[in-house]
Write a structure and sequence with these properties.
Beta-Lactamase, alpha+beta, five-stranded antiparallel sheet, single chain, PAS domain-containing protein
């Protein structure tokens, strides 16, 4: 688990387990450390690399490196098919090699 304190994974589960959109806790190497229930439901699993799921073009414009370098939340709005998604990368305070990634509008149409 890349030397990540288990309390961080526990906190991730407490905060994100019931969030209705897929959420991942990811190492800078792009190894997925933890997922919430919505993410598991679409097939993402701990141990895989985040880029292993979905089409390669879905990962173009990834802002993970920017979030990790600046240690500030980053986001962008994307359109995929008929979906408008706001995608977020959130660095974790005290753990500069890890971030939380999710999108609002991935599985739910809020329009």
């Amino acid at each position: 688990m890349m030397n990540l304190d288990t309390k961080v994974v526990e906190a991730f589960q407490l905060m994100w387990e019931n969030f209705p959109e897929p959420v991942t806790l990811v190492h800078k190497s792009r190894e997925v450390i933890a997922v919430n229930a919505a993410c598991a439901a679409i097939g993402r699993m701990p141990g895989m690399r985040c880029i292993e799921q979905g089409a390669p073009e879905a990962h173009r414009g990834c802002l993970a490196n920017q979030a990790l370098q600046t240690q500030k939340a980053t986001y962008k709005t994307i359109t995929r098919g008929d979906k408008n998604i706001i995608s977020y990368w959130l660095p974790i305070n005290g753990y500069p090699d890890y971030f939380i990634h999710f999108g609002v509008g991935v599985t739910i149409d809020y329009q």
